[in-house]
Amino acid sequence: MQRILIDTDPGVDDALAILLALLSPELQIEALTTVCGNVPVTQGTENLLRILEVLDLAEFPLIAQGEAQPLVKPLVTAAHVHGDDGLGNISQLRNADGRPVYPPADTHISPTSGVDLILEMVTRYPDELTLVALGPLTNVAKAIRKDPVKMQRLQKIVVMGGVFEDYGNVTTTAEFNIFVDPHAAQEVFQSNVPIDIAPLDATHQVVLTGERLHAELDGRSDSISRFLKDATHACMEFYRQHVGFWGFHIHDALPIGMLTHPEYFESVAADVQVETEGVLTNGVTVSDLRPERRSPHPNAQVCIKVAADAFLDHFFQRLQ
Ligand code: BDR
Ligand code: CA
Question: What is the pTM assigned to this prediction?
Fold first, then answer.
């Protein structure tokens, strides 16, 4: 069993990743921390509680709210992709009796900050804990600034972020999580902690179409199915209008799959740097992935290939 801390900015695909992680018997989710990104961090924390309520959990992981602003840049959010509340506006849905369809889980939020909870968890599980980062890397960078020696006791960090040979999704060149806080990403990538990266080059290979989603949910009325249907609607409409297909990419689910089913993923060792100054290239992850040009001093394993059909089948099996 792998001990996991998930740092997240929920987010529709974050929600799918969190559900997948909690439904993966290979993983023990010890804690979740929120960070600003897709939505402001207070909204992200509320969303996390809504997501946790979808599952009938006997015991909740530890939860702490993290940073509200990137290290240097002003916050850029993605409500236009994920819906105003970040979860396809499910917070507005009401039952016939007027009660919210998706109430936040009634559980305790730690009074410590996300950064301190990360450090506490590394102290509790030295050399055992894997940190899965599904949003901008602000909390992770701040934890490294606060105690760089302790953070070396992480087993590794698995990051959804960056793009190398594909186009970006927030600008032509940059991926959202790295673009929102490029300074944090650069500090994390230079930290010497082992890092696995799922960039857009990999996540774009896994296309969840609306047809597939609805076929999978057809005839089901359980809480996970209802949530999947309700939370993904706005995002799929955004993709229909702006990306060119009805459906979406389940970016943040990939790091979870990389931990439980590494055989579906192929990675290369790379030296990854982040452009923090550029105007047209702000937040770009830079690395030469050509075999003959790869650096002899890699700081990350970058996923370049996914067995997409096998991973999607697995994803739906777990969310049954
Ligand atoms: C990443 O950006 C966010 O909008 C998603 O949640 C994902 O983490 C994809 O670029
Ligand atoms: Ca995310």
Answer: 0.97
